[in-house]
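Regression report. Comparing outputs from two consecutive submissions.

Submission 1:
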Amino acid sequence: MSGLILLNGKIYTMDGKFRVVEAVACLDSKIIALGKSDDMKNFKKKDFKIYDLRGKTVLPGFIDCHTHFLYFASTLDTLNLSGVKTFATLKSRIKEKLKNLKPGELLFVKGWDKNLFKDQSIFNKKTLDKISVQNPIAIFSKDQHTFWVNSIVLEMAEVDKKRKYFAPEKIEEDQKTKKPKGILREDATELILRLIKKVHQKKPKDLFEKAISIVHRNGIVGIHDLGGENTLANYQTFLSSGKLKLRVYVTIPQKNLDKALDLGMKTGFGNEFLKVGGVKLFADGALGSQTALTFEPYSGSENNYGIEVTSEKDLKILVKKANGSGIGVAIHAIGDRAVSQSLNALEKCGKKSLRNRIEHIQLVHPKDLKRFAQLKVIASVQPIHLTSDRDIAEKYWGKRCKFAYPYKTLLKNGATLVFGSDMPIEGFSPLKGIYSAVTRKKERERKDSWYPEQRISVKEAVYAYTLGAAYASGEERIKGSIELGKLADFVILSEDIFENSAEASRDFERILKTKVLATIFDGRIVFGFM
């Protein structure tokens, strides 16, 4: 047995009364005492490790409600084009990486954002063929909804032969040759992902422990992984080997739903370290690829309404099948039409007793803003998106942005709002996520807040990363707040982000200066200490 005591701190419990205490004592993985530092005298006589916080702030450990964590882990050493804006830089980085590969070896690249490039005509197979005719090159977009590949990849994946199974807009065609151009979108990207998995992809275990240490440094103790078909099996392997030092809630891919039903699986199966979540469904694409499904066409286009990945009719069938057998759903829906159709499916075929949720919700039609609370649908959002995607949202959605990322309105209407990052698509620091939600500004920019009426309070933002996040996985009774009997998961901060960000002072920049000093998981220090 091991004990731990934190004294002389400012410990925000995040419980229903928003209590603040000085000290907390833990035995093994559970919290056994809360109160003033003097209240811990009896424990000091026993075999407890004691730490003086010297006034530092303690919060429940952060939970990231939307990650692709195993993908993040397995691609830590993958060439990343995030922030690259010119073809010259892109070409230089790819050429440098190719020096380490043998002829014929596939180069997988991530983080490409076409919206940063002025010349959009370069995105075709011929451009990449000029970089290399020996190595297959597959470039995944930042939002993971589009692939840009060279001719060798198209041949290896037999894209021309298989494109008859996909809608025309999902595999771009060269107008002259009528052959695949080298751009694949939405479910057509599976052709490339299968190829990469077959010839290139490393197993997640290679970099898994490194990835966990990175999120611990950011105060994260739990994640929801909305990954692929082998995700649960991989986590089970890590759990049995003792390497799973995170609390993981993992969704079921749509393609695995029938298998899960045959096995009798239900949402909530598992233990304090690993639980089965709902089935992940896709209603549409993404803003970055201009495939998010909208009621009105994208600005500058007469007929691009995005891509309907799953129709409302099929969503209803899938929701009924899953919910009817005790499995919740997590529906990816970014555009306002996709959000509306997802809500329709949940209203007609969903069960309110399950923690059904919609992911992203970047644009909402005004008529749908009250429906989240009415239908008890969790709004699972990523606050970092509202600042990183602001410019392209303005470009493609224009005045509709008044109803983009409408966090305050959702809360006012009684919705449960939970936060995540979409890692590795975006940065995953919860502190930066909190800053984004309470300021609706990019870091240290001088512009006014973007639709400031949608800003939320620091308390509301922290709740979305803690007790709200625990509610989303049905675990609010065992984690998400600092209360007796709950799991001993904490983050220690260098600043009091509540005090320094008082509504009256608007000193929100202090949040960005706040550092994670330590992270405690399962009653043990896993990062830092002071």
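Submission 2:
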Amino acid sequence: MDNNDRLDHLERALIAGRITRRAFVAGALATGLLAAEAVPALADELDTIRAVQARNRSSLKKAYDYVVVGAGSAGCALVGTLAKREPGAQILLIEAGDWDTAESVLDPRLWFTNLDTVRDWGDVSIPSAGTNNRAIPEHTGRVVGGGSSINATIWARPFKADMDHWARVTGDRRWDYRHSLKHFKAIEDWQGTPNPAFRGTGGPVWVQPAADPLPVATAALDGFREVGLPVVDDLNGERELTGNGFGYMNQIIKDGRRNSMARAFLYPVLSRPNVTVLVNTQVNRVLLRGNHAVGVEAVTDGRTVRFGAHLEVVLSTGGFNTPKLLMLSGIGHEKELRAHGIRVRKHAPEVGKNVQDHILHGGVLFEPKEPFAYRNSAANVSGYLRSDPSFELPDVSLVQIEIPYASEVVAARYAPPPSSWALCGGLVTPKSRGTVTLRSANPADRPIVDMQFLSHPDDVAALERSIAIAREVGASSAMKPFVVREVAPGAALQGEDLANFVRDGATTYFHSSGACRMGKDDKAVVDSELRVNGIHNLRIADSTIMPRIVSVPTMPACVLIGLRMAELLS
């Protein structure tokens, strides 16, 4: 066990009450990972949380005012905000995973080592023609903090066109860009160039431009300029209005450590007596009495238990688990539910439909003249482009990745040297739609995920355009000091060869959304106030409510959804 593992073990042990505060301080100092003056404060924070949460867990109530299922980005923002707004309300937050104290969570350089571990649900989209019959992993967080704890650390706020679309389809202007911007400015603690029109300071969410970027990242921005692409000082600013802009990523990294939404919103309220967090607890279904949600059934410590909800049950379990929970509870397409022997409580045929994700192509690869060690989360430069001014939103996205990011097919075909780096084209406005369906009525079974990636020809065309731009930037004079050769594709491809390169290289950003869309029409799963249509006292606050996926990484949008839910409940 190395020192990072020892500190992780000590933190978990103190929170769980297996060691004393004194033992934690001695052990933490012995690791040498923390400054001596920082250890007592950390010990106090953890010990207070331990005491309060241990007391709350030892005397669990039969019912709470609010039962929130899922401690992802939206769930953390919701509970953290609601606990402060409603100090007298008893809130139970249930999380299937464990605490977020693993070093692979805290160190942003290690984020991809969380994938295919206990901190990942491990879903895989079944093979489909759009990806040349490849199965595509869909990693989602199973840990306190959810995706904000295991995915990359990108803070990218939605475009104006994204949020104004939500307002139009719901008939509720409180979802529009103007209202959303107020929320974002209120919660941010922006560390870059001040810009009061767009950015906020002093809030709980630490956001900074990519720190100490490598020369290859700076050269990429020069390469974007050289080929005529707009480079901006801040990727959360004017580009939200124009749809165009490339620059250094905004990241939730503070002093070299991940500052997840659990750290931003949830930890500050864990010492409050009105907040109880149950980790390693799997919710099986929502309990219904007629058309009213009255609680949840869950499994904790090997026991099946029920928790009532006096006011509301809120599902914040993410792209695949939320539709799964609804269907297991009898809310979904009646024919599909009956096929699994599930009693139909509400015929809601769009549950599990309209599923969307962003595509990250892996990739256009280059061999450098000299190897370099990646920084931050291995991706520090990105951007968006409307290649046709008539487009409402960007059709092209590019991400520079400082490792040889490639799909399994591209990696096998081109054998990139370990020192390679990538310019990856992205699809952020997909027209393809997938589904999530039940595998069985057994809550332990994962759902069937069929994303149908690249089933719409416009999606393939957009990725083809992004690949062409990536190759052009890689061939620019600005990039010459960092390029010996283009490893993949290595030459211009056309027609079916280019389309196959797109399909063979398709991977995902892990931003599954849309399976329980909101809208004002009678087919929508939730209304503009996130109430499940036809069911009282049941709401959804996560990426599934997006009628159309936002054209950026989804973490900030999920935080917005959590904040909006807290506003609606308080």
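Expected: both submissions complete independently.
Actual: both completed, but the second showed a warning that disappeared on reload.
Relevant detail on submission 2: The chain has a mean pLDDT of 95.
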